[in-house]
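Q: Joint fold for the lines below.
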Amino acid sequence: MNTVILADDHEIVRRGVRSILEADGQFKVVAEVADGLSAVQAVEKHKPALLFLDLSMPRLHGLEALRQVRTASPQTKILILSMHNDEPYVIEALRAGAMAYILKGSESTEIDRAIAEVVAGRRYLSAPLSERAIAALTSRTPDQADPLNGLTPREREVLSLAAEGLSTTEMAEKLFISPRTAETHRTNLMQKLGLQSQTDLVRFAIRKGLIQP
Amino acid sequence: MMRVLYAEDDPNVAAVVRSYFTHFAPEIELEHVLDGRTCLAQMAKGGYSVLLLDLVMPDINGLQVLGELARRADPTPVVMASGLGQTDLAVRALRAGAVDCVDKTSPQFHQIVDIVKRVHARHLEKKFTTPTQSPFEPPAKHRVLLVEISATTRRTLEDFFRANAPQIELTGDATPAAFERILAGHAEAEAVLIGPTPGEASSLDTLRRLRSHRAKLPAVVLAARGDGETAVAAFKLGAQDYILHQSDYLADLVFSLNNILRRADTERSNEQLTRELEALNRSLEAQVRTRTGELQALSMRLLRVQEVERRTIARELHDHLGQLLTGLRFQLEAAHKAAPPALQATLQESLGASDEILRYLREMTQQLRPRVLDDLGLAPALEWHANLFQRQTGITVALDVSLPPGRLSGDLETTVFRVVQEALTNVARHAGITAANVTLTTNGHQLIVEITDRGRGFEVDAVHARRDSLGLTGLCERVILAGGRPEIFSRVGQGTRIHAEFPLAPLPGDRPGQTPGQ
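A: Joint structure:
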């Protein structure tokens, strides 16, 4: 039988999840906790197969508890059950190693489905979340080897214009940004790329095909 | 009650005046004295509303009484009573500070009671509209340097002054040494009296030397000769008065010196007042600065309180109500599953209602204060807001964030978030365009925030003049309160750029390491 810990500061929510799990018949709830810190301690003690974790909890935020739990018991699979339907939370949770992100207020069948997927070793996201979050996640794994990826889109524009020989004022005019911002972009991008001079900058731009030699 | 002191040496005139007062104004208490000395003695006791003063009296004449009262800085208004053919004396009395002068022989004198009453009323009015307290106390004794080598003339003057004008002390001796010391600025006097035989140099040359060294020191020339050219020359050289050394000159001299010294007192008093005003001004400016600082601190605190309040309400809604609703939904679902067919439809509706409430609750909490800002920080919060904004308005927001990892201070994150939010709202309302840019970057010691659009634009001055229909003032104020510097650039047909720079050093009032909202 799979062991489960429920971490949520609302008894009514825990009761709901427990009734779903008990109806399934394959799970045993070994502990119920109402705050982040207790969640971490309970997981360390029981090393359960599954952890249902709320994000907004007293004493320790769910995201931080998630990180600590991952270290304390890597084999425990974590399902986030949260009120937050905001993408940044989903992304943060997935990055920190959560296997499922279920939106509170979803149909209880969603919980069944999430458990099934997670037990099978796959990720699960509540229907409204999946597409956007996964798109965001995949677009956020840039090639670290390419230094250009360290630049923001605006910095890249400034790089091209600077390589073409535009002055800060001209760049500012063209991009409709203030000269001070243009200057800051330029300084920052040179620092990020490890460039010392205008010559370095032009050489780099040619190498990257940003301008024609 | 109104008390009038009346100095008059002619008992017949006095009786007539008394009858006027008894008849027309029995409520006025009239006290009569027969000479100048008694008059001055009574005046020293104080308590008189008006002094009615005869111009010519046997011991001290009216002009001298006026001079002495001026020296005492007695504010009691004086009405002079003059006789036939005393017009020039009357003019001098008025110059010396009498408020009015009435000819005893004119029909006007019958109205003396009314005149006195009017003078009193005017004086009261003046008294209550001008500050009564002079912060400057005139010196008890005035020092006047006498430049005169003739021992006889010196003695005459000194004796007369000692007897009749004890408030003026003549200094110096029959040698030019004292004058030289005055010129060199080593000795002090309030005025210089150049005698008929001032020394080797003539009166005019002495005056000229005095002027070139001590331009501001008042000088009176007591001239040996009475030609008009010399008098004019003396006045042109800045002499305050030019008096002929002939019979009866002494009273004139005292009168003149009294006037000059009083004027000097007034000037000094004015200077002191000016200095005090300047000091007051400086102190007021400092107070205004302090007050402005206090107001800004207060505004900042208000903004903080508002955010804390919003955060609390959002949390309460989200954490408590939201969870209860979640639990309720579980129960409804279980009930729905187990319910007899007759109840199925109703419970299905209830489930739909609970979904609706949850959705509404989420929106509300986000509008109050996005939790992402507290939990995850500025960049994710801005991303979240940009997405939401895009969905709500159809305006694409290109978010360009280049910040070092880690959180900024709670206040700064809130300010920047709210500024971006406000600026984007303006874009949606006024720019008439489908794209906007938000840039966040740092040069190490400053955070630079820029919100731009290439939309309609506006005349910045005109918008400010219209008392800010775009909420730009509030936006700028918010930036300034967080220690930042706002800059708004907009041109009709070109677009709008809102630029703000914030210092990255910790602001006073922010506890370092404090996680916002915890």
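Q: Anything notable?
A: Confidence is low (pLDDT under 50) at residues 507-518 of chain B. Chain B touches chain A through 50 residues (CB under 8 Å).
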